[in-house]
Amino acid sequence: MPRKTVKQQKQKRVTDTDINRNRIRSVTDGLVGNEDPDDIMLELMETLDELTEAPQSGKFYIFVYNPKTPNIEYDQNPFIALTDIFEWGFRGVNFHWGETRQYTWNEVAGAMYEVYASEVKDLQTLPFAKFRLNN
């Protein structure tokens, strides 16, 4: 593989944020500090675009989730790095839990929203996790 020229080495790598401004930043900049997690989630859903195609492994997503399993603790506003896709649903690392969780398609309430890798740090600063017990 040939080496890059000095000019090529100096060229800036284009990121999602360069092409599509950091959409999360407008939400983080507008916080006062006493917002409800659902209000933050609604603002995020208004800021991001609904996913129009199938989600993909290796990408980041937020969505509203209402599980069917009784007596399970869950995050109603998951922020995940999707790792596996199945016919019944998907698996991903939930940033709010700090662990892998499983989600079924039928329990995703509404759309999923893709978050660019360059926006992950900003999204991690937002307190929009909503932990609940399904009973």
Protein described:
- The protein is α+β, with helices and mostly antiparallel strands and 135 residues long.
- The protein has one domain (16-134): Roll (SH3 type barrels).
- The protein is built from five helices and seven strands.
- The chain has helices at 6-10, 16-19, 25-29, 37-47, 120-124; strands spanning 60-65, 72-75, 79-85, 89-94, 99-104, 108-115, 131-134.
- The strands form two sheets. Strands 5-4-3-1-6 form a five-stranded antiparallel sheet, with no helix packed on it. Strands 2-7 form a two-stranded antiparallel ribbon.
- It starts with 5 loop residues before the first helix and ends with a strand.
- The model has no long low-confidence stretch (mean pLDDT 89).
Outline of the structure:
With about 140 residues, the protein is an alpha+beta fold. The chain has helices at about 5-10, 15-20, 25-30, 35-45, 120-125; strands spanning about 60-65, 70-75, 80-85, 90-95, 100-105, 110-115, 130-135. The strands form two sheets. Strands 5-4-3-1-6 form a five-stranded antiparallel beta sheet, with no helix packed on it. Strands 2-7 form a two-stranded antiparallel sheet.
